[in-house]
Amino acid sequence: MEINKEVKQEQIEIYMQIVEDFYQSVQKWIEKKDYICTKESMNLDEEKTGSYTINKMLIKKQDKTIAEILPIGLDIIGANGRIDLVTPYETRKFLYFKKGGPVITTKVEGKKIDHKVFTGIESDDWYWIESVTLKKAYKVDREVFLSLLDEVTSKWVI
Amino acid sequence: MGYLEDLREVIKIHEFQIALNKEFFRRNQFDFSLEELGGNKEHYSREFKGKIEEYTILQLWTIFERHLFELTDQYIRRNQDEGTVRYAIEGKIAEKIERWSLGEILDLYKIIIDPDTVGMIKQIKRYRDWLVHKNPRKASPGKISYEDTYIYLSEFLNSIKSDLSRLVK
Question: Does ipTM top 0.85?
Answer without folding.
Answer: yes
